Amino acid sequence: MRLIMLGASLAQLPGIQMARAMGHEVITCDDQEDSIGHHASNGRITASTFDAEAVLRVAGNLAPDGIMTMGTDQPVLTAAIVASQLGLPSLLTVLQAQSVTDKRIMKALLVDCRIPTAPYVVVKKTKENRFSEDQLNKLRSLGTPVVVKPVDSQGQRGIYVLPQIESIEAVMDSVLAFSRTDEILVEQYYSSDEVTVSGWVNEGHLTVLTITDRLTFNSIEQIGICLSHEYPSRHMKQYGQALIDITRQIVNGFKIKDGPIYCQFLIGSSGIIVNEVASRIGGAFESQIIPRISGFNITRSVIQHSLGLKMNQDDTEALKTFHVLSDFHVMSVQLFFAEPCTIQSLTPLDVLDQCPGIIEAGYFKKEGQVIPEIRSATERVGYCLLTAVSKAQMEQRLAYLYQYLKVLDTNGHNRIIHRPILQS
């Protein structure tokens, strides 16, 4: 069968490889000619995965049997639109896909379903970005500081934390540079820890597969940019069941019947609130860690549903027997960055593979590339997946990893940002 994969980066590579191993033909769609997934596929489409019309024009001539994406937000909508237009199987309707990719719809639905989320206001661009008194009063009701973000972007691009309402006008155009709309979302800032929940919905029944701590930069200039995912979450004991219950509310409220669910939560002094909702495999290599933790092959299941095939029996059984609150695995996904520099050399992957507990490692950047100031998740240099038998052993293994992990600049200085130091 022929499957179109939206995206050809490292986040989609496991899906490309698995679909081909299952005997399917894979056509990758990405506007980056050198994306690694193109080299692992049977053919390619050069088009933006955000541009449903462009994808549809090409896909219609390929007679695909299915279309999917993973590890990325906005192409979820493209997949749903193309599937609807071509009569292909789809995990989501177009309306459902809009609800998990457009924060205006997402936030309104959360409020309608009485699911806790940060108070917000949607603001439309006006001439010279001047707000009316009515708009200012609504914005002032949020208090300060506020978080300003695009309604339809990803990767923490175009997000600002502002100390006063009057500052919004100055950043309006910068936020909209990462949007296809003329509106932005302004939310009340909530000092909190970030936790993610990944799960699978089968005929309306939710199975939570992981609950992880999403560790981010401490700086508000780099708000939400993820450094690592740590499993199990340190909040599992106190909030685990509540996180499962709220995720179930989300599944019901968003009317998700089948497929992956990925939710970001904030836990602070006022308890749990929902930050964002997605219906796709997470972008922090959840495709690799979920099967190791739960025995459920989430990537294979998305592929099969996208092609209209029945789910594998082993995966069906895994969903019946697994319960996240009784799991004992310890895993870490390191998403590492470097200070601004030109990369002279990177630690060879075969050296990293010798570090204790390493499952997999890879680089997003190449030697000779310039690393800019960190403004979004797109500045990631690479990743490592590790496993351990305890959190204490994991900390030892991370310390060992960062002894060897080097991003050398043209002067031979290591510019890697050391995750354990940032955490402390």
How are the elements arranged and paired?
Layout lengths: L1 E5 L6 H9 L3 E5 L13 E3 L6 H8 L6 E4 L5 H12 L7 H6 L3 H10 L7 E5 L8 H8 L5 E5 L9 E3 L5 H9 L6 E6 L3 E11 L2 E12 L9 E6 L4 H18 L5 E10 L2 E8 L7 H9 L3 H9 L6 H9 L8 E7 L4 E2 L2 E2 L2 H4 L5 E6 L6 E2 L10 E7 L2 H14 L2 E2 L10 H5 L1
Parallel strand pairs: 1-2, 1-4, 2-3
Antiparallel strand pairs: 5-8, 6-7, 6-8, 9-10, 9-12, 10-11, 11-14, 12-13, 14-19, 15-18, 16-20, 17-19
Helix pairs in contact: 2-3
The proportion of residues forming helix, as a percent range, comes to 25-40%
How would a crystallographer describe the biggest sheet? 8 strands, antiparallel
Unreliable runs, pLDDT <50, ≥5 residues? none
- Rg computed from alpha carbons, rounded to a whole number of angstroms: 21 Å
What is the name of the CATH class of the largest domain?
Answer: Alpha Beta
- What is the residue-mean pLDDT, rounded to a whole number? 94
Number of strands: 20
Strand line-up across the major sheet = 13-12-9-10-11-14-19-17
Question: What is the beta-strand fraction?
Answer: 25-35%
What spatial form do the alpha-carbon principal axes imply? globular
Can you tell me the CATH topology of the largest domain? D-amino Acid Aminotransferase, Chain A, domain 1
